[in-house]
Each structure stands twice: as structure tokens, then as C-alpha cells.
Amino acid sequence: MTTRISEVLFLLLPRLTGEFVFLSTVSSGVAMATGPTPNCRRQQLHLRVKVQQPHQIESITRKSMILSETINLLHSLGPKACRLEVENTNFDLFSSLPKMGQEIHPALKLSFKSTFELFKKNTIYSHWNPTELLHLRELLNGQTKSHENSMPMMSSELKPLVKNFRQLNHFLSQQNFNMCAWEVVRNEILGVMDHFYKITVYRKRHIK
């Protein structure tokens, strides 16, 4: 007895589509010892299958919500002050943040932790709303604790990000944590969180 084995080919489309194409070529026909071999029929099936990725969708949705809340709290700290100083302080930092098609999880975890470490410092001269500042710290602390057992290993991709946060910390120290220094830092952190938020929103739209 002879048997022709089904041939199966999987083609994986780009991750962001959340789809893959399943191409199956089935060759039927079994040679029976007791009778004639039937005519072989070759069928080609082209099936587009939507991949259900609830855990991935939930993870991205959660990241997006937390980032949105972080951004709102940063704005809620109070009216922006020292606009001239903020505009004239050009750090040119955070150019190494993940791009749209790259993995963001390690860099995002590191950013939450580093931001929390910054905002734990002396904010007495910041003139911010203390209640909103407390809420921001609690949110950042919650994200830090939820990832404390899974913090990313230091890689070459993360080193520039670590350096950027250290530069912000050094800047605050140099300026004695004054109000304008904190406004510069708030503006930089807003840019970081907004960058991650836009990526999560984009990915939510492309994973169904």
C-alpha cells in the first residue's frame, strides 16, 4: 500500500496584521492491495485565517491605558511654567526609543522605572499639585513593582535610554531641583510617554 502525504505550508504575514495565510495542498489517493488504484484528485485550499490573540490585545490595551493615565497626570500637575527655559533647553535626548515596528516592552518597563526614580526626588520647588504628584508616583510605583521580577537585562539597545535618564537626573541635581528644572524634566518625560502611547494606539488598530 502506498500513501501520498498531505503537504502543508504556513506563511506568516507581518506581525502587525495579526493574520497568517494557511495554504494546504492535499493529495488524495491510496493504492489498495485488493483493488485498482482510484484516480488521484488534487485539491488546493487557500484559507485566510484570522489569528485570535486575546492576550496580546489585552497587553497592548493595558499599556495604552496606563500610558494615557500617566500623560494625563503629568499634565494635571499644574500649569506649565518656565516656557522660555523649556524651549531653550535642548537636550536632544531619547532618540534611541523604539520605532513603530520594533518591540517596546523592555524600553517601556525601563522608562516607567526610571521616571519613578526621578519623581521620587526633591520636588519641593516644583510648585506642582501635591495630590496629583502623589497619584503619579503611585501609578509609576505600581508599574515598577509589577515588573520588578522581570526587569529587562541591560542590552546595547537599552544603554542609550539609561544614559538619557541619568542625564535628566544630573540636570536636576545641577539646577538644585528648582522649578524650571522640573518643568524641563516634565516636558522630556511627556515626550517619552507620548511616543510609547502613539505606538500602542497604532498596534491596537492593527491587531484584531
Overview of this protein structure:
This protein is mainly alpha-helical and 208 residues long. The protein folds into 2 domains: 7-50, no CATH class; 54-206, Growth Hormone, Chain: A. The protein contains 6 helices and 3 strands. A 3-stranded antiparallel sheet has the order 1-2-3, with no helix packed on it. Helix 1 (54-76) packs antiparallel against helix 6. The longest helix has 28 residues, at 179-206.
Name a few traits of the molecule.
three-stranded antiparallel sheet, globular, 208 residues, Growth Hormone, Chain: A, mainly alpha
CATH class annotation of the largest domain: Mainly Alpha
Shape: globular
**Strand-residue proportion:** 5-15%
Helix content: 40-55%
If you consult CATH, what is the topology of the largest domain?
Growth Hormone, Chain: A
The succession of helices and strands, N to C, reads EEEHHHHHH
Main sheet properties: 3 strands, antiparallel
- Give the beta-strand count: 3
Please report the distance between the alpha carbons of the first and last residues.
46 Å
CATH architecture of the largest domain: Up-down Bundle
Structural class: mainly alpha
Please, what is the average pLDDT? 77
List the helices and strands and how they pair.
Layout: E1 7-12, E2 19-27, E3 42-50, H1 54-76, H2 83-88, H3 105-119, H4 130-146, H5 159-174, H6 179-206
Antiparallel strand pairs: 1-2, 2-3
Helix pairs in contact: 1-4, 1-6, 3-4, 3-5
